[in-house]
Structures are given as C-alpha cells and as structure tokens.
Fold this protein.
Amino acid sequence: MSSIRRLAVAAVTVSLVALGGLVAATPASAATSDCPAAYSCGWRDYNYVSGSSGARNIRFEYSIDWLGNYAWSDTGATVNDSVSSLYNNGNISTAVWYQDIRFSGNSVTLPRQYGNPDLRVNGFNDKASSGTFI
C-alpha cells in the first residue's frame, strides 16, 4: 500500500471515529450524567431535561417526603406534580417515586441505574409528589 493511500485511509478512519463519538453522545445519556452517584433524580421535561439544561433536576440521596418544598431553579415553580422523566443513579437500592406526599399512592419503581425518559408512557407524567429508596 502506498504512503499516500495509507494516509488517506488513516484520515478517513480518524474522521469516522470522531464522527461516531459525536453521534453517540445523545442528550438523554448526557443529562442522566447530571444525576450524581447514589441519588435518584427527576426532570421537568422529557428525556432528562429541565428547560434548556439537563443539569436542573430534583434529586434525593435518601428521600423527599414532599416535592412541594422544592422549586425549579430556572422558573421558581414548584417541583410537585411537574416531573416528566426519572433516573435512579443509586448504588445499591431501588428508587420509588410516589404520587402522593409521604410515600403513598400510585408509584413508579426504578431499579438502580435505570431511568424512564418519558413518564407519559406509564401515565405518571406530572404526578410525582415524593420519593425514596427502598
């Protein structure tokens, strides 16, 4: 193989690898990385986003007994009954988000390292009021 052809193949390979890296980085996976280890997180919008940034989320390390005590950082609106996607970045425990305060009512269960990017699918959109690890 000639030197020029080797350089051309190498350039194409490097370009494809670089392009593949850009394509593989999706907003959903980037936003779930905003949920710290050992926490469960909720976002106001679908696909792990709140407003224009995935970094704005509600999170708990142990539990939150009422989301009405918290507000979204960009709007100041209450978090209660306004969560549209969830992720459990817990190390060992299952996270449960409940429809009512103090861990009661209908719920969504998330095993560790699992998320739900669209709560419309299971009818839990804009219904979370509390959450805990079990």
Remarks:
- Residues 18 and 24 are 10 Å apart (CA to CA).
- The two ends are 61 Å apart (CA to CA).
- The first helix runs from residue 3 to 24.
